[in-house]
Amino acid sequence: MNQHEKLNYVEFSAKDISATKKFFSVVFGWSFEDFGPDYTAFSGEGLDGGFFKAAESSSTQNGAALLIFYSNDLEATLAKIEQSEGEILKPIFSFPGGRRFHFLEPSGNEFAVWSRNKQTVLQVQSIRVLPILQCQTLSN
């Protein structure tokens, strides 16, 4: 849905639009609509966007913004990326509240995937459950 002054669309360069489309279709289930040989668009993936034919690629090393996916199973997503001709740029590492890794898709654009730490999720779940247990104990 279009909302006033909200992020609405993102475009990326792609050296090989065909390989990039195949990668995102296989790994993330994206679908595309082509607008000529040098542009393809995707929608319904959290943020609509497209890929345009260009020799350059986006990387944090050259000052580009980093778009980050979320995964419920970081290792499974990493495996799908490796099996689909993605390159792991930074292996899984921890940061406060989670873990993530960075990868390059076939056209050389850098993305990342993150997931909450399992310990953090368990702590949050136990905080929600604890008051219920205390209420049951007090009522008995």
Describe the structure.
By secondary structure, the protein is α/β, with parallel strands linked by helices. A 4-stranded mixed beta sheet has the order 1-4-3-2, with helices on one face. The protein has a 4-stranded mixed beta sheet with strand order 5-8-7-6. The protein has one domain (9-139): Roll (2,3-Dihydroxybiphenyl 1,2-Dioxygenase, domain 1), CATH 3.10.180.10. It is built from 3 helices and 8 strands. Helix content is 31%, strand content 33%.
Summary, kept brief:
With 140 residues, the protein is an alpha/beta fold. 31% of the residues lie in helices and 33% in strands. Strand 6 and strand 7 (98-104) form a beta hairpin.
CATH class: Alpha Beta
Strand order of the largest sheet: 1-4-3-2
Helix/strand order: EHEEEEHEEEH
Broad shape: globular
Largest pleated sheet = 4 strands, mixed
**Count of DSSP strands:** 8
Q: What is the residue-mean pLDDT, rounded to a whole number?
A: 87
The fourth-level CATH homologous superfamily is 2,3-Dihydroxybiphenyl 1,2-Dioxygenase, domain 1
Strand-residue fraction?
25-35%
Number of alpha- plus pi-helical segments: 3
First-last Cα distance: 50 Å
Judged by helices, strands and strand pairing, the structural class is: alpha/beta
Could you please say which CATH topology applies here?
2,3-Dihydroxybiphenyl 1,2-Dioxygenase, domain 1
Poorly predicted runs are 120-140
Residues in helices, as a percent range: 25-40%
